[in-house]
Structure formats: structure tokens, C-alpha cells
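Human: If only I could read C-alpha cells as easily as an amino acid sequence. Underneath my words sits a plain record pairing an amino acid chain with its C-alpha cells. Take your time, and here it is.
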Amino acid sequence: MVGRASPGGRPPTGSQPKRERRYFALMALCLALFVSAWAFVRLFSVPLAIGMSVVAALIPPVAVVVANLREESDHWFDEGEGEDENEDGGGYGSGTGGR
């Protein structure tokens, strides 16, 4: 399966390493904003430090969404390797009403 570590210890393939790098980059930015806001910036401007903290607080939910974005080549746990999508797109919100 693409994107999962195998029991044999092989590294994950596909876009998972890229998604992990994006997630860790965003979380490093979040941490850098918090630390710099209260270690350095507060000495010059408390409102700016508060603003930086607000921005940093918004980054983790964005990082989760970005890290879980599906790429065209990805196969998720609920798909078969060779399955094609339905003609209408299938899935939730396809308008078929489950009939």
C-alpha cells in the first residue's frame, strides 16, 4: 500500500514524506513565531507579539489540513489499488442520495 510503513520496516513511499515535511515546516514556523514573539518582539512591541501569537495559534489547524491533502497519485485506506471513481465522482455529496 502506498503511504504506509510496511511491517518489514521499509520507508513509506508516495507523497507521505512530502506531507510530513510540510507539516513539520509549518509547526517549526509556529514554534519560531511563539518563541520570537515572547523572547524578543515583546521587548519592542507587546501588541505585535500578541499578533504574532495569534497567527502562530492559527497555524496548527492549517498544518493538519495541509498535511492531509490528497495528491492525485495517493491511494487511501478505503480505496483499492485499481479502483476508478464513479462517473459522477462518487463519495459524499455526489447527489445520488445512496440510491
Summary: The chain is about 45% helix and 0% strand. The mean pLDDT is 78. The helical segments are 16-39, 46-67. The two ends are 31 Å apart (CA to CA).
